[in-house]
Design brief:
Blueprint (H helix, E strand, L loop, with lengths): L6 H39 L1 H75 L12
């Protein structure tokens, strides 16, 4: 079984495929046009808002820049305050260690001595069963 296609049939099939592709391109372009018209309407309705936003943009950026500078300054102050707190904490810890070593330990030693002396001297004699001569 032999089958041959003439050149006119090939041209006809090529024309159908081309026509289908052309229809798809036209449908795509119509949808793009419809989308662009919708966007144009949105822009037209909001033109005054967009203009106002664009006009206020430099002021907003200036405010952001000022706030950023202010925050940077405050962060430096906070950093310095934390450094001071750290130094004060170290100084306080050192002072407490000195108080402990130089004052509390000698007082504890004195109290220990007083306790020993009290135990030795101030003990009342117990009356026992056996009397000592």
């Amino acid at each position: 079984m032999e089958f041959t296609i003439s050149s006119s049939v090939v041209w006809f099939l090529f024309a159908l495929v081309s026509l289908g592709a052309l229809v798809l391109v036209i449908i795509g372009l119509l949808r793009v046009n419809e989308t662009l018209n919708i966007l144009k309407g949105i822009l037209h309705r909001n033109e005054s808002n967009i203009d106002e936003s664009l006009k206020s943009m430099p002021k907003i950026l200036n405010n952001v820049e000022e706030i950023t500078k202010e925050i940077n300054g405050e962060m430096k102050s906070i950093k310095e305050a934390f450094r001071n707190i750290d130094e004060t904490t170290e100084y306080t810890a050192s002072a407490m260690q000195i108080v402990s070593e130089d004052i509390l330990e000698p007082i504890k030693d004195v109290l220990d001595i007083i306790s020993v002396v009290k135990d030795v001297v101030g003990r009342p004699k117990k009356k026992g069963i056996f009397k000592s001569k």
